[in-house]
Amino acid sequence: MAINSLTKIYDGNDISGAVPNVVYLPILKNGTIVSIDVLTDLNVSGANAVFSVSKNGAVISGLSPTIAIGSRIGTVSGLNIAVVKGDEIILNLVSGAVSSPITFNLDVDDGVAAGGGAAVETDFISGLELVWNSATGLTVKQGAAYIPSLGAILRVPSDIVKSGISFSSGFYYVYLFKNGMAADVEFSTVAPTFYNGNASSKTGDNTRRCIGSVFGIASGLVNFVSRIRSNVLEVTWITNQNIAPFRVLSGGNSAGVNVVDVSSVIPDIIFDSIQITPTFGLQAGGDAYFGVGADLDPSLTYPSASGDVALRAQNNSGGFVYNGYPSFWVKLLARQLKYHFGQFAGSSSNLYIDTRGFSVRR
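RESULT FIELD:
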């Protein structure tokens, strides 16, 4: 991103105590203030020089650039202060004394790529991977994302660690937002709404950018690992998947194409894909096939059965056997799967589908 430095100098009389409106700095472009420097020509003596900063006449809470005794500079970095062209940033002396010229500098990220590229897209997101810590907490890794209400990118310079959260059964959406001067996240059962392509914000609240989703059961947050691929967050659970709610089909053997509802194990709105593991149960002498996918052609039979996977199995042993298959991802059209089933021999073979995870668009 392009960082623009805005600088103005106060070269008036010595000042001390509470002195408002020492330096005015007009904002020339929309952007985000990422750091502030206050410099003096001579070392500060007697007491720390403590300043406040105002935006359009209102003091910015929690922002107090300070020049310590014996020093000439006070810097505050890691800021995310959204500004627009025409805003006025004002430096005020709160306490202490300064007996030399004062230089007030703002570093403003204007959201333009270095080298004169195009402005950052409003669907921008980078990093912000989710890491499971416990049944009551997780970490959001460092990164950045565009926040609609700010009209700017909110940076997460260090990991955000959340703990002591009471997760109950169901999906929680993870929202990035600006909390005072810092980035923060919240967990909400309120689903997001797309505002630009795959980028979404909390429904009814564009101060919250959705960065993913996690799943809870009665005992808390389900253990998981995640990874990011092309702005899609993939979540794979580390738990027993052959029980409710993860087993979405148990003993399915209806001929033809059948619908399996998976809305209980995949988030709403932002869903992308589901990770599943099929298991085939075959009676002695059984000969059957299945296909599993997001949408199937009911006119096809094995070996042309449509789907993300289509397999046939035979059981030549004397008893019932189960054939487990590797897990795979199915890109969804809706929060449902379809399976195609048929039997060439026998009538008691059946299909089981366990879910191992999900992915969401960001």
